[in-house]
Specification:
The chain is α/β, with parallel strands linked by helices. It is about 45% helix and about 10% strand.
Amino acid sequence: MNVRRHHISGLALAAVTALGAGTLSACSSDSAAAGNTDKFDVVASFYPMAFLAEQIGGDHVNVSSLTEPGQEPHDLEISAQQRAQLEDSDAALYLKGLQPSVDETVEQSGLKTKIDAATLTKLEDHGDVEHEHEGEEAHAEEGHAEEEEHARDPHIWLDPVKYAEVAKGVGAAFEKADPDHAADYKKNTEALVKKLDALNTQFADGLKNTKSKVFFTNHAAFIYLAERYGLTQEAISGLDPDSEPSPARIKELQEEAKADGVTTVFYETLVSDKTAKTLADDAGLKTDVLDPLEGITDKSKGDDYFEVMESNLTALKTALGAK
């Protein structure tokens, strides 16, 4: 069983779209540009990893992403061309457990520098939280649920504190792998961590005093973020955003919306908003986008990680009634 596919099936596969201006200027998905350059060549698994590599590496790195903008990261299957791209590079930066095809390819590669972000911060088991309200559906998929509950939630980049911990680890790995530019990597890492610390402060201050602490999402991608800022995430469809919730689950959420002052049902840019809008219409709620930031497309509310996270904060403040 592909545990990760069920655990975080976040973005439906969409047509590949062009990168917005200002995003990953050093990033290219063209394998010809990925390896054997005069720079430190880094292959990143998907956007949050590529963003770190680009920010920390600066002018010294050539970053390529295995996942195209608009492509669902979880279903990525590595091509022969991408395998060659990896072999020609100096380092791979990935998040083990998120993309099984990437994990296998990196492990089998002859790369000397393999940076697994999952080892640079603590990943939690959130399976039990996500299955807490699934009722009868949980019994129907008891075997799957049991496996998923032992899977670690990889959405660490949505928590600025955890993302900063990963950034520090990536910076240290770059310094070791490319010592000629270690001073610059160290300086860039410190600058990035400082920005992430400021973002954390923005979230903490912005969400400190709100009318409600509960928000509804299409699927359970924001548990780290919720835990960091004293909020509670309720996912409509649990692990799979494309699955239809049971009538009992819909009724439960409608009752909870009234009890907890929930005003908004969040959905994701690349996932159908049908279920979210159905619940919102039935319960008299609004809908809005909360972006899990697995990729940047022309539909994203921002050109990079920080802009989209700030957009997420604005959406949460509005939905929760920040004072």
